[in-house]
Design brief:
The complex is a heterotrimer of chains A (78), B (156) and C (248). Chain A is mostly helical and 78 residues long. Chain A contains three helices and no strands. Chain B has 156 residues and is mainly α. Chain B has one domain. Chain B contains one helix and no strands. Chain C is mainly α and 248 residues long. Chain C has one domain. Helix content of chain C is 65%, strand content 0%. In chain C, helix 1 crosses helix 3. The chains are: A mainly alpha (78), B mainly alpha (156), C mainly alpha (248).
Chain lengths: 78, 156, 248
C-alpha cells in the first residue's frame, strides 16, 4: 500500500496547503459582494450602474484563488 | 507525453506543449470564421431587427402625435362652434327680447290711447249729461215755481 | 479505465486530453482533434442561435430571437457603458470573443464533451491577442500619451516612480491573470465534477451523496461558466477603455 517516495508525499502535502489559498479568495469574493449589497441596499438607485464594477472586483479577487488552485494542480500533475 | 497515451493523462494535458501549435492553429481558423459570421450575418441582422423595431416605435409615436394634434384641432373647433352657438343664442335672445319689448310698448301705447279716448268720451258724455240735467233742473224749478205761485194765488 | 484496480482510480485530467480524430493517429499541427470538433460544434450552435433563430425578423421576438437579442445588446450596452461610444468600433471583435468563450464554456458542461476554454493555450492566446491589440490601439490613438497610464499625474511626485513600477507590473501581468482565470475556472469546475464522479463510482450504494454533490456543483458551474465569459469580456472592455482614455 505504501509506495512512492518522499517527494511524492511532499507534492501532495504542498498541494493541500496550496488549496488553503482558495479560502482567501472566498473571503475576498464574499467581502466584495457583501459590501456591494450593503451599499446597494442603502442606495438602490445607484446599484445597477455598479454591477459591472462588482463583477470586475469579483474577478480580481477570484483570480488569486485560481492561482492557488493552479499551484496545487501543478504540484500534483506536472 | 499525454498525447500518445490515450488511456490516461499523465500530468496536465494543458501543459503538453506539443499540442499548442495544433490548438492555436485551429483556434485562429475558427475565430476568423466566427468573426466573418458575426460581421456578415449576425450584426446586420441584429441591427436590422433593432432598426426595424426603432422604426415601428417611432412610427407609432409620430402617429400618436398626429392623433393628438387632430384631437387638439377638433377640440378647438368644438370650442369655436360652441362660442358661436352661444353668441347666436345671445343674439336671438336679444332680438326676441327687443321684439317683445317693442310689442309690449306698442300694446301699452294702444291701450293708453284707447283708455284716453274712453275717458274723453266718458267725460264728454258726462258733460252732456251734466248740461242736460242743469237745464231740466232749471225747467223743473221754473215749472215748480210757477205752479207754487199759482197754487198760492189760487187759494188766496 | 477499470481494469487496473488501484486505491486511487480517479483521473480528473483525462477529459482535457487532446486526441486526434481524423488525419492520422499522430498529432500534427493540422490534425482534426476532439478540441477542433467541439469548436466546430460551438460554431454550429452559434449559427443556430444567432442566424437561424432570428431569421423571421419578428417585431416581438420569439424565444430564440430574444435570447440572441439579449446577448447581442447586453454586450453592446456593456461596451458603451465601460469604454464609451468610441468602444463601439471594436464591438464585432469583442462580440466574437464573447460568444466564442461563452459557447465553449456552456457546451463544455455537456457530458462527454470537451471544454476548449479549459486549455491554457486557447485562453492564453486570446488574452495575449487582447493585450497586444489593446497596447497597439493605445499607442495608435494616443501616441506617447498612452504612457500616462503608468505615470499617474494625480499622485504626489515622490510616489510616482513607485506607482510606475506597480502599474507596469500590473499591466504586464494582465494577460497572465486574464487567461489563467478563465482556464483555471473551467479546469477546476470540470475536475471537481470528475472527482465526485470518481467517488460515486467507488462507493456503490453510498453514491447518492456524491451524485447530489455533482448536481450542486453542476448548478454552480452553470453560473460560473457564464460569469467567466462575462468577466473575460468585461475585462477586455476595461483594458480597451484604458487604451482609449489613458488619462484616468
Amino acid at each position: 500500500m505504501v509506495e512512492g517516495d518522499l517527494v511524492e508525499m511532499g507534492k501532495f502535502i504542498g498541494a493541500g496547503l496550496a488549496c488553503t489559498g482558495m479560502g482567501g479568495a472566498a473571503v475576498g469574493v464574499g467581502h466584495v459582494v457583501g459590501n456591494f449589497l450593503s451599499g446597494a441596499l442603502r442606495n438602490p438607485s445607484a446599484a445597477p450602474g455598479q454591477t459591472a464594477t462588482m463583477f470586475i472586483g469579483i474577478a480580481f479577487a477570484e483570480a488569486l484563488g485560481i492561482f492557488s488552485f493552479l499551484v496545487a494542480l501543478l504540484l500534483m500533475y506536472a | 507525453m499525454a498525447s500518445n497515451n490515450s488511456s490516461h493523462a499523465e500530468g496536465m494535458p494543458q501543459l503538453d506543449f506539443a499540442t499548442f501549435p495544433n490548438q492555436i492553429f485551429w483556434m485562429v481558423v475558427f475565430c476568423v470564421v466566427l468573426f466573418i459570421i458575426v460581421k456578415i450575418f449576425i450584426i446586420p441582422r441584429m441591427e436590422d431587427i433593432f432598426a426595424n423595431r426603432r422604426k415601428v416605435i417611432d412610427g407609432s409615436i409620430s402617429k400618436a402625435e398626429e392623433i393628438k394634434q387632430r384631437v387638439k384641432e377638433i377640440e378647438l373647433q368644438i370650442e369655436k362652434e360652441l362660442s358661436e352657438a352661444k353668441a347666436e343664442c345671445n343674439n336671438i335672445l336679444q332680438t326676441s327680447n327687443d321684439v317683445m319689448k317693442s310689442q309690449i310698448n306698442l300694446a301699452l301705447e294702444d291701450s293708453k290711447k284707447a283708455t284716453a279716448e274712453l275717458i274723453q268720451e266718458a267725460e264728454k258724455r258726462l258733460k252732456v249729461l251734466r248740461d242736460g240735467s242743469d237745464e231740466s233742473i232749471k225747467k223743473l224749478s221754473d215749472e215748480l215755481v210757477s205752479e207754487i205761485i199759482n197754487k198760492v194765488t189760487a187759494t188766496k | 479505465m477499470s481494469e487496473e484496480k488501484t486505491s486511487f482510480n480517479i483521473h480528473p485530467m483525462d477529459q482535457f486530453v487532446i486526441e486526434p480524430l481524423l488525419m492520422g493517429d499522430k498529432l500534427q499541427w493540422y490534425s482534426f482533434t476532439n478540441q477542433t470538433l467541439w469548436m466546430l460544434i460551438s460554431l454550429v450552435a452559434i449559427s443556430l442561435v444567432f442566424i437561424v433563430g432570428p431569421r423571421k425578423h419578428q417585431l416581438i421576438p420569439g424565444r430564440f430571437q430574444s435570447v440572441a437579442e439579449l446577448v447581442y445588446f447586453f454586450i453592446r450596452d456593456m461596451i458603451v457603458e465601460i469604454a464609451g461610444q468610441e468602444g463601439l468600433r471594436y464591438f464585432p471583435y469583442i462580440f466574437t470573443l464573447f460568444i466564442f468563450i461563452l459557447f465553449g464554456n456552456v457546451l463544455g458542461l455537456l457530458p462527454y464533451s470537451f471544454t476548449y476554454t479549459s486549455h491554457i493555450a486557447i485562453t492564453g492566446f486570446l488574452a495575449l491577442t487582447v493585450f497586444l491589440a489593446v497596447t497597439i490601439i493605445g499607442f495608435v490613438k494616443n501616441g506617447l500619451g498612452f504612457l500616462k497610464l503608468f505615470w499617474i499625474g494625480s499622485a504626489p511626485l515622490a510616489l510616482r516612480p513607485v506607482l510606475l513600477i506597480i502599474e507596469l507590473i500590473s499591466y504586464f501581468v494582465r494577460p497572465i491573470s486574464h487567461s489563467i482565470r478563465l482556464a483555471g475556472n473551467m479546469m477546476a469546475g470540470h475536475a471537481v465534477i470528475k472527482v465526485f464522479a470518481g467517488f460515486a463510482g467507488a462507493m456503490g450504494i453510498g453514491a447518492i451523496a456524491p451524485i447530489f454533490a455533482i448536481t450542486a456543483v453542476y448548478g454552480l458551474e452553470m453560473l460560473v461558466v457564464v460569469i467567466q465569459a462575462y468577466v473575460f469580456t468585461i475585462l477586455t472592455c476595461v483594458y480597451l477603455n484604458d487604451a482609449l482614455h489613458p488619462g484616468h
